[in-house]
Automatic annotation (TrEMBL):
Name used for this protein in its record: 7737_t:CDS:1
Keywords, comma-separated and alphabetical: Membrane, Transmembrane, Transmembrane helix, Transport
Ranges in coiled-coil conformation: none
PROSITE patterns found in the cross-reference section: MFS, SUGAR_TRANSPORT_2
Organism (species): Racocetra fulgida
Length: 297
Protein backbone atom coordinates (compact mmCIF):
# COMPACT_ATOMS: atom_id res chain seq x y z
CA UNK A 1 0.00 0.00 0.00
CA UNK A 2 1.53 3.30 -1.08
CA UNK A 3 1.17 6.63 0.72
CA UNK A 4 -1.82 7.80 -1.35
CA UNK A 5 -3.71 4.55 -0.79
CA UNK A 6 -2.93 4.64 2.92
CA UNK A 7 -4.22 8.22 3.17
CA UNK A 8 -7.42 7.32 1.32
CA UNK A 9 -8.13 4.24 3.44
CA UNK A 10 -7.50 6.28 6.58
CA UNK A 11 -9.56 9.33 5.66
CA UNK A 12 -12.57 7.46 4.25
CA UNK A 13 -13.45 6.66 7.86
CA UNK A 14 -14.57 10.27 8.28
CA UNK A 15 -16.92 9.92 5.30
CA UNK A 16 -18.64 7.05 7.07
CA UNK A 17 -18.77 9.16 10.21
CA UNK A 18 -20.53 11.93 8.31
CA UNK A 19 -23.11 9.52 6.90
CA UNK A 20 -23.75 7.95 10.30
CA UNK A 21 -24.14 11.26 12.10
CA UNK A 22 -26.61 12.57 9.50
CA UNK A 23 -29.25 9.90 10.06
CA UNK A 24 -28.48 8.99 13.69
CA UNK A 25 -30.64 11.61 15.38
CA UNK A 26 -33.67 10.86 13.21
CA UNK A 27 -33.49 7.15 14.01
CA UNK A 28 -32.85 7.84 17.70
CA UNK A 29 -35.87 10.14 17.90
CA UNK A 30 -38.16 7.64 16.21
CA UNK A 31 -36.87 4.30 17.53
CA UNK A 32 -35.21 5.30 20.77
CA UNK A 33 -31.64 5.79 21.91
CA UNK A 34 -31.15 2.25 23.21
CA UNK A 35 -32.60 0.58 20.11
CA UNK A 36 -30.51 2.79 17.83
CA UNK A 37 -27.32 1.83 19.66
CA UNK A 38 -28.22 -1.86 19.52
CA UNK A 39 -28.86 -1.66 15.77
CA UNK A 40 -25.64 0.30 15.37
CA UNK A 41 -23.79 -2.73 16.69
CA UNK A 42 -24.11 -4.12 13.16
CA UNK A 43 -21.91 -1.33 11.77
CA UNK A 44 -19.50 -1.36 14.71
CA UNK A 45 -19.05 -5.11 14.44
CA UNK A 46 -19.23 -5.58 10.68
CA UNK A 47 -16.68 -2.85 9.94
CA UNK A 48 -13.77 -4.42 11.85
CA UNK A 49 -14.82 -7.88 10.68
CA UNK A 50 -14.69 -6.87 7.01
CA UNK A 51 -11.31 -5.22 7.53
CA UNK A 52 -10.01 -8.21 9.46
CA UNK A 53 -10.77 -10.55 6.56
CA UNK A 54 -9.96 -7.96 3.86
CA UNK A 55 -8.08 -9.52 0.91
CA UNK A 56 -7.50 -6.16 -0.80
CA UNK A 57 -7.70 -2.38 -0.43
CA UNK A 58 -11.31 -2.23 -1.64
CA UNK A 59 -12.44 -4.41 1.25
CA UNK A 60 -10.46 -2.23 3.66
CA UNK A 61 -12.25 0.85 2.33
CA UNK A 62 -15.66 -0.80 2.75
CA UNK A 63 -14.78 -1.85 6.29
CA UNK A 64 -13.54 1.63 7.16
CA UNK A 65 -16.76 3.21 5.86
CA UNK A 66 -18.90 0.77 7.87
CA UNK A 67 -16.86 1.43 11.01
CA UNK A 68 -17.10 5.16 10.33
CA UNK A 69 -20.89 4.98 10.08
CA UNK A 70 -21.01 3.19 13.41
CA UNK A 71 -18.73 5.77 15.00
CA UNK A 72 -20.82 8.61 13.56
CA UNK A 73 -23.97 7.18 15.11
CA UNK A 74 -22.21 6.71 18.45
CA UNK A 75 -20.93 10.29 18.39
CA UNK A 76 -24.50 11.59 18.14
CA UNK A 77 -26.53 9.12 20.19
CA UNK A 78 -24.28 8.15 23.11
CA UNK A 79 -23.90 11.70 24.54
CA UNK A 80 -27.66 12.15 24.26
CA UNK A 81 -28.36 8.83 25.95
CA UNK A 82 -25.90 9.51 28.77
CA UNK A 83 -27.28 13.00 29.37
CA UNK A 84 -30.84 11.68 29.54
CA UNK A 85 -30.20 8.82 31.96
CA UNK A 86 -27.82 10.64 34.31
CA UNK A 87 -28.71 12.87 37.23
CA UNK A 88 -28.13 16.61 37.00
CA UNK A 89 -25.22 16.37 39.44
CA UNK A 90 -23.41 13.70 37.40
CA UNK A 91 -24.33 14.82 33.89
CA UNK A 92 -21.02 16.56 33.28
CA UNK A 93 -19.03 13.60 34.58
CA UNK A 94 -21.01 11.15 32.45
CA UNK A 95 -20.34 13.28 29.39
CA UNK A 96 -16.60 13.35 30.03
CA UNK A 97 -16.59 9.61 30.78
CA UNK A 98 -17.76 9.07 27.21
CA UNK A 99 -14.73 10.95 25.91
CA UNK A 100 -12.52 9.16 28.43
CA UNK A 101 -13.70 5.85 27.03
CA UNK A 102 -12.77 7.01 23.53
CA UNK A 103 -9.25 8.13 24.42
CA UNK A 104 -8.66 5.01 26.52
CA UNK A 105 -9.75 2.91 23.56
CA UNK A 106 -7.29 4.75 21.33
CA UNK A 107 -4.52 4.20 23.87
CA UNK A 108 -5.36 0.50 24.20
CA UNK A 109 -5.35 -0.02 20.43
CA UNK A 110 -2.00 1.73 20.11
CA UNK A 111 -0.50 -0.47 22.82
CA UNK A 112 -1.83 -3.46 20.91
CA UNK A 113 -0.15 -2.08 17.83
CA UNK A 114 3.23 -2.18 19.56
CA UNK A 115 3.02 -5.97 19.62
CA UNK A 116 0.63 -6.86 16.81
CA UNK A 117 1.62 -4.49 13.99
CA UNK A 118 3.02 -7.34 11.92
CA UNK A 119 2.02 -9.01 8.67
CA UNK A 120 0.23 -11.74 10.62
CA UNK A 121 -0.88 -9.84 13.72
CA UNK A 122 -2.65 -6.68 12.55
CA UNK A 123 -5.85 -8.54 11.76
CA UNK A 124 -6.12 -9.63 15.41
CA UNK A 125 -6.52 -5.99 16.45
CA UNK A 126 -9.53 -5.68 14.16
CA UNK A 127 -11.08 -8.92 15.39
CA UNK A 128 -10.78 -7.46 18.87
CA UNK A 129 -12.90 -4.54 17.71
CA UNK A 130 -15.56 -6.97 16.51
CA UNK A 131 -15.61 -8.71 19.90
CA UNK A 132 -15.99 -5.39 21.73
CA UNK A 133 -18.90 -4.41 19.47
CA UNK A 134 -20.56 -7.77 20.15
CA UNK A 135 -20.12 -7.42 23.92
CA UNK A 136 -21.49 -3.87 23.83
CA UNK A 137 -24.57 -4.95 21.89
CA UNK A 138 -25.26 -7.79 24.33
CA UNK A 139 -25.01 -5.52 27.37
CA UNK A 140 -27.15 -2.84 25.74
CA UNK A 141 -29.94 -5.38 25.33
CA UNK A 142 -30.16 -5.49 29.15
CA UNK A 143 -30.14 -1.71 29.57
CA UNK A 144 -33.18 0.55 29.85
CA UNK A 145 -34.43 3.05 27.33
CA UNK A 146 -33.96 6.74 28.03
CA UNK A 147 -36.80 7.86 30.35
CA UNK A 148 -36.84 11.25 28.65
CA UNK A 149 -37.34 9.61 25.27
CA UNK A 150 -40.16 7.47 26.65
CA UNK A 151 -41.76 10.53 28.24
CA UNK A 152 -41.70 12.33 24.90
CA UNK A 153 -44.09 9.79 23.41
CA UNK A 154 -47.89 9.84 23.82
CA UNK A 155 -48.83 7.67 26.78
CA UNK A 156 -45.22 7.25 27.79
CA UNK A 157 -45.47 8.35 31.41
CA UNK A 158 -45.67 4.89 32.97
CA UNK A 159 -42.85 3.51 30.82
CA UNK A 160 -40.68 6.54 31.61
CA UNK A 161 -41.41 6.20 35.31
CA UNK A 162 -40.49 2.50 35.32
CA UNK A 163 -37.26 3.16 33.44
CA UNK A 164 -36.34 5.97 35.81
CA UNK A 165 -37.05 3.78 38.83
CA UNK A 166 -34.67 1.13 37.47
CA UNK A 167 -31.96 3.71 36.83
CA UNK A 168 -32.27 5.35 40.24
CA UNK A 169 -32.91 2.13 42.17
CA UNK A 170 -35.83 3.79 43.91
CA UNK A 171 -39.55 4.33 43.49
CA UNK A 172 -39.21 7.96 44.58
CA UNK A 173 -38.85 9.58 41.17
CA UNK A 174 -41.83 11.93 41.13
CA UNK A 175 -39.66 14.88 42.11
CA UNK A 176 -37.37 14.33 39.13
CA UNK A 177 -40.33 13.98 36.78
CA UNK A 178 -41.70 17.26 38.11
CA UNK A 179 -38.29 18.81 37.47
CA UNK A 180 -38.55 17.78 33.82
CA UNK A 181 -41.94 19.44 33.72
CA UNK A 182 -40.52 22.71 35.01
CA UNK A 183 -37.60 22.68 32.56
CA UNK A 184 -39.93 21.91 29.66
CA UNK A 185 -42.12 24.84 30.67
CA UNK A 186 -39.15 27.21 30.88
CA UNK A 187 -38.01 26.14 27.40
CA UNK A 188 -41.35 27.01 25.85
CA UNK A 189 -42.82 23.52 25.91
CA UNK A 190 -46.10 22.54 27.44
CA UNK A 191 -44.15 20.06 29.48
CA UNK A 192 -45.55 16.96 31.11
CA UNK A 193 -49.22 16.94 30.28
CA UNK A 194 -51.50 14.78 32.41
CA UNK A 195 -54.97 13.51 31.60
CA UNK A 196 -56.62 16.18 33.70
CA UNK A 197 -54.75 19.00 32.01
CA UNK A 198 -55.44 17.56 28.59
CA UNK A 199 -59.19 17.78 29.18
CA UNK A 200 -58.89 21.56 29.44
CA UNK A 201 -57.01 21.94 26.15
CA UNK A 202 -59.82 21.80 23.63
CA UNK A 203 -57.65 22.99 20.77
CA UNK A 204 -55.27 20.04 21.07
CA UNK A 205 -55.49 16.93 18.94
CA UNK A 206 -57.23 14.04 20.70
CA UNK A 207 -54.71 11.51 21.99
CA UNK A 208 -55.10 7.89 23.07
CA UNK A 209 -53.05 7.65 26.24
CA UNK A 210 -52.73 5.45 29.27
CA UNK A 211 -53.37 6.83 32.73
CA UNK A 212 -51.64 8.77 34.10
CA UNK A 213 -50.41 9.95 30.72
CA UNK A 214 -47.63 12.37 30.04
CA UNK A 215 -45.95 13.77 26.96
CA UNK A 216 -43.56 16.52 26.04
CA UNK A 217 -45.54 18.65 23.63
CA UNK A 218 -43.94 21.62 21.90
CA UNK A 219 -45.94 24.69 21.03
CA UNK A 220 -45.95 25.30 17.30
CA UNK A 221 -43.66 22.31 16.84
CA UNK A 222 -42.30 21.71 13.36
CA UNK A 223 -41.98 18.02 12.56
CA UNK A 224 -40.02 18.88 9.41
CA UNK A 225 -37.36 20.83 11.28
CA UNK A 226 -33.99 20.36 9.56
CA UNK A 227 -30.46 21.75 9.40
CA UNK A 228 -31.39 24.49 6.93
CA UNK A 229 -34.19 25.75 9.17
CA UNK A 230 -31.79 25.63 12.11
CA UNK A 231 -29.33 27.87 10.28
CA UNK A 232 -32.04 30.38 9.32
CA UNK A 233 -33.61 30.54 12.78
CA UNK A 234 -32.09 33.51 14.61
CA UNK A 235 -33.16 32.04 17.94
CA UNK A 236 -30.46 29.37 17.64
CA UNK A 237 -27.79 31.59 16.09
CA UNK A 238 -25.73 32.28 19.27
CA UNK A 239 -25.57 28.60 20.19
CA UNK A 240 -24.82 27.67 16.58
CA UNK A 241 -21.90 30.12 16.47
CA UNK A 242 -20.39 28.62 19.62
CA UNK A 243 -20.88 25.09 18.28
CA UNK A 244 -19.26 25.82 14.92
CA UNK A 245 -16.38 27.73 16.52
CA UNK A 246 -15.63 24.92 18.96
CA UNK A 247 -15.60 22.29 16.22
CA UNK A 248 -13.52 24.44 13.89
CA UNK A 249 -11.00 25.08 16.65
CA UNK A 250 -10.78 21.39 17.42
CA UNK A 251 -10.34 20.31 13.81
CA UNK A 252 -7.96 23.12 12.80
CA UNK A 253 -5.77 22.30 15.78
CA UNK A 254 -4.58 19.30 13.79
CA UNK A 255 -5.67 16.73 16.35
CA UNK A 256 -6.91 14.33 13.68
CA UNK A 257 -3.61 14.53 11.86
CA UNK A 258 -1.83 13.70 15.10
CA UNK A 259 -4.08 10.74 15.88
CA UNK A 260 -4.13 9.30 12.35
CA UNK A 261 -0.63 9.99 11.05
CA UNK A 262 1.59 10.58 14.08
CA UNK A 263 3.38 7.25 13.72
CA UNK A 264 4.27 7.74 10.06
CA UNK A 265 5.25 11.39 10.60
CA UNK A 266 7.38 10.68 13.64
CA UNK A 267 9.04 7.72 11.91
CA UNK A 268 10.93 10.21 9.74
CA UNK A 269 12.15 12.12 12.79
CA UNK A 270 12.52 9.40 15.40
CA UNK A 271 13.00 6.10 13.56
CA UNK A 272 12.44 3.16 15.85
CA UNK A 273 10.67 5.24 18.50
CA UNK A 274 7.66 6.63 16.64
CA UNK A 275 5.26 4.00 18.04
CA UNK A 276 6.31 4.71 21.62
CA UNK A 277 5.98 8.47 21.16
CA UNK A 278 2.49 7.97 19.73
CA UNK A 279 1.52 5.93 22.79
CA UNK A 280 2.90 8.69 25.01
CA UNK A 281 0.73 11.24 23.17
CA UNK A 282 -2.32 9.10 23.90
CA UNK A 283 -1.34 8.83 27.57
CA UNK A 284 -1.25 12.64 27.76
CA UNK A 285 -4.65 12.67 26.05
CA UNK A 286 -6.10 10.37 28.71
CA UNK A 287 -4.61 12.41 31.55
CA UNK A 288 -6.02 15.68 30.24
CA UNK A 289 -9.44 14.10 29.77
CA UNK A 290 -9.43 13.08 33.45
CA UNK A 291 -8.39 16.60 34.42
CA UNK A 292 -11.23 18.00 32.29
CA UNK A 293 -13.74 15.81 34.13
CA UNK A 294 -12.58 17.28 37.44
CA UNK A 295 -12.63 20.88 36.19
CA UNK A 296 -16.09 20.62 34.62
CA UNK A 297 -17.70 19.44 37.86
Amino acid sequence: MNAAQFAFVTSVFTLGGLLGSLFASRVADSRGRRVTLILNGVFLGLGPLVMGFAPNITALVVGRVLAGIGSGVVTVVVPTYLAEISTVELRGTFGVMNQLGIVCGILFSQVEGLYLSTLSGWRLILFGGFILALVQTIFLSFSVESPRFLASKPGGYNAAKRALEKLRGSNEVEEELNGWRQVASEEGLEGLITDEEREHQSNEEEMVIESPAVVFHARNSDENFNVWKLVKNLQYLPALKVLVLLHLTQQLSGVNGVMFYSTSILAKILPGMSELVTVFISIVNVIMTVVSAYLID
